[in-house]
Write a structure and sequence with these properties.
The complex is a heterodimer of chains A (513) and B (108).
Chain A (H helix, E strand, L loop, with lengths): L6 H14 L6 H26 L5 E4 L10 E4 L1 H24 L8 H17 L3 H20 L4 H32 L4 H7 L8 H18 L8 H8 L2 H25 L12 H21 L3 H21 L3 H31 L10 E2 L4 H16 L5 H12 L6 H27 L2 E2 L12 H19 L1 H16 L2 H8 L14
Helix pairs in contact in A: 1-2, 1-4, 2-3, 3-4, 3-10, 3-13, 3-17, 4-5, 4-10, 5-6, 5-10, 6-8, 6-9, 7-10, 7-19, 8-10, 9-12, 10-12, 10-13, 11-12, 11-16, 12-13, 12-16, 13-14, 13-15, 13-17, 13-18, 14-16, 14-17
Chain B lengths: L1 H19 L4 H21 L21 H32 L10
Classes of the chains: A mainly alpha (513), B mainly alpha (108).
């Protein structure tokens, strides 16, 4: 058996545990160790990506227990793409955290960072619903602690809301899992895909309730309206490096929708075919528009960045909600783009806030910034990416979504919301940029701005470099996204790989009824 | 048996929802605890309620309970316990940081 798929779970687990014990290390040693661990995870993700690039599905059965009974980790193109994305964002945000010494307040910051990665990477790799729940909890409990890091009153308040909401979400998740297990007798994704089409009409309503409860949970994690109000305040309050990593966190909800619904509740699912379709599109369009309005209403740069996350999740879920091959392809491309763009925005905003001695990140008239030209250009490039203007990747992503929606009954609504919201975001970002960089007073004497170090600058620049690569190799990236879209729309390959092509009918197995 | 079980879960859930809608952190915390009890019972019931049978399985026994929900519910209890502990600490922190136990911070 190829042991590569377990590495993204084991590496952060071991590194995090070592870091927990590292209280006597010097800060330099701790920084070097966690940077090396994150770099190792990026390298592993890249190796995994190279292995599954051609469409192979790597299945890792823990303890050798054959699926559908044992626990499986499954690495396919979708999971590998998200692992690489996580690796890139984790490297950049950890580099920023080290450069700004975010972990100085509490040495456990670096251990929590690793546990956060453990939860994220596990959630992307797991092959069954219950372990998805477990990894969700791992990533959530690490994220609560990371969000609280520094313990300012703002963070405590935001974290209280996030924790309560997510605990209720976990309860609903378990209810959904129990309902689905109760009628199907399995939680393995591939096995569910085989059992659900054969459900009787007496069992189908229970499974439908379970599926829609899970949708509520995934909507909460991905901050879809009306469950997304917690996000801008929480992300706006978090330390910059943490907020940048959290850009991946919302994408876990989107990933779960992409993984579960086309596979188990897709068009082939009999009575439960396309259960999520009627709900997802209207809610996604609403969050898109609402997110854009939030961006324009925000009064500080951090809140702008927080609302941008909501806006980009909205656009992303519009693509997912089309439930078509082209829609999935657009969603993959847009996921990669929007995660990188939001992470870069959080880092750049923090650099700006550090450089403005009196006003911080508020959109007020303040003293001119000592490094205004440099940070202004960085902000400009990031804003162009976020708003989806040519020539950067946001534009390509938006075109892919618009193209994919052609032929859908709601095309006119989708086009007008997407383009209208994009216009609002452009206006909001230009207003924010001009307020911060142009409407300034003379520089006062004696102010001591936080000088942006080379490493702190390198982090957002590296992310923006990846965004540029996404355009420079746009043809390859789009072709790959389309291949992933095909995988999601035709899950037979995934199902055969997990269940070993054993096409035994579900009734053959011993059912405990 | 089924009716009793269902009524118990329903009562726990409705109490939990009522408490979750309170404005102070302590009732919310109790609400979360009750909700997790209800959820754990529900999860346990997904393996069907079987009476007068072997606890796991034995040679030649036809009726036995499904072990998987029991394993799931154990995991869920452990996770729920950890989360509740975190929530208690966080609620205490919030009182210290914001000067009150209102869920929106401070004393309202």
């Amino acid at each position: 058996m190829n042991h590569l798929p377990i590495a993204p779970v084991l590496l952060p687990l071991i590194a995090g545990s070592v870091l927990l014990l590292s209280t006597r290390w010097s800060a330099t040693a701790r920084h070097a160790f966690s940077l090396a661990a994150v770099a190792g995870q990026l390298a592993t993700a890249l190796m995994l990506f190279a292995t599954v690039r051609d469409g192979t599905v790597l299945v890792y059965a823990l303890g050798g227990w054959a699926p559908p009974f044992g626990i499986v980790l499954v690495a396919d193109r979708l999971a590998a793409t998200l692992l690489v994305l996580t690796g890139i964002v984790a490297c950049a945000s950890l580099l920023y955290a080290v450069a700004r010494d975010t972990g100085a307040a509490d040495p456990r910051f670096h251990a929590l960072f690793q546990f956060q990665l453990l939860g994220l990477q596990g959630a992307f790799l797991t092959g069954d619903l219950f372990n998805l729940f477990v990894f969700f909890e791992v990533l959530l409990i690490a994220s609560y602690a990371l969000l609280l890091h520094g313990l300012t009153p703002d963070r405590v308040k935001a974290a209280l809301h996030v924790v309560v909401l997510n605990l209720i979400g976990s309860g609903l998740f378990l209810l959904g899992v129990a309902l689905i297990y109760g009628v199907t007798g399995t939680l393995n994704f591939a096995d569910l895909a085989r059992v659900i089409p054969a459900l009787t009409s007496a069992d189908a309503p229970l499974a439908r309730t379970g599926a829609l409860l899970l949708l509520v949970v995934f909507a909460l994690k991905s901050a879809l309206l009306p469950l997304g109000f917690w996000l801008p305040r929480a992300y706006g309050a978090a330390a910059a490096a943490v907020a940048a990593l959290f850009a991946v966190l919302t994408k876990v909800g989107v990933y779960a929708v992409l993984r579960v619904y086309p596979l188990a509740f897709g068009p082939q699912a009999g009575e439960l075919a396309n259960v999520a379709e009627a709900w997802l599109l209207p809610l996604a369009l609403a969050s898109l528009v609402f997110g854009a309005l939030g961006v324009i209403a925000a009064r500080s740069l951090r809140m702008v960045a927080g609302w941008v996350v909501l806006y980009s999740v909205g656009s992303l879920l519009v693509a997912v909600a089309l439930f078509s091959e082209a829609g999935y392809a657009a969603a993959i491309y847009y996921t990669v783009h929007s995660t990188l763009a939001s992470a870069a925005l959080f880092l750049v905003v923090d650099l700006i806030a550090g450089d403005r001695t009196t006003a911080g990140d508020r959109l007020d008239t303040a003293d001119a910034m000592p490094h205004g030209a440099l940070l202004g250009s960085l902000f400009f490039v990031t804003a162009v990416t976020v708003a989806g203007l040519p020539p950067l990747s946001g534009f390509v992503g938006k075109i892919l979504i618009l193209e994919a929606s052609g032929g859908h009954p709601a095309t006119a609504l989708i086009w007008s919301s997407l383009l209208g919201a994009a216009l609002v975001v452009i206006v909001a970002l230009s207003r924010a940029g001009s307020a911060v960089f142009w409407r300034t007073l003379a520089r006062s004497e004696g102010a001591r701005p936080l000088r942006p170090s080379l490493a702190a600058l390198a982090a957002p620049v590296a992310i923006l470099g990846c965004v540029a690569a996404l355009v420079a190799w746009g043809g390859n990236a789009t072709a790959f996204a389309q291949a992933v879209g095909r995988d999601i729309a035709n899950p037979h390959h995934y199902i055969d790989a997990v269940l070993g092509g054993d096409q035994a009918q579900p009734d053959d197995r011993r059912r405990l009824r | 048996m089924e009716a009793l079980f269902a009524i118990a879960i329903g009562t726990l859930t409705s109490c939990a929802v009522y408490l979750l809608l309170r404005a102070r952190t302590y009732p919310v915390l109790l609400g979360l605890t009750l909700l997790s009890y209800a959820v754990n019972l529900f999860l346990f019931a997904s393996g069907r309620l079987v009476m007068a049978s072997a606890p796991l399985t034995d040679q030649g026994i036809e009726r036995f309970p499904d072990p998987i929900p029991q394993a799931l519910v154990l995991t869920a209890i452990v996770i729920g316990f950890g989360m509740t502990a975190l929530m208690v600490v966080l609620a205490l922190r919030a009182i210290r940081a914001t000067g009150g136990d209102h869920v929106d911070g401070g004393e309202r």
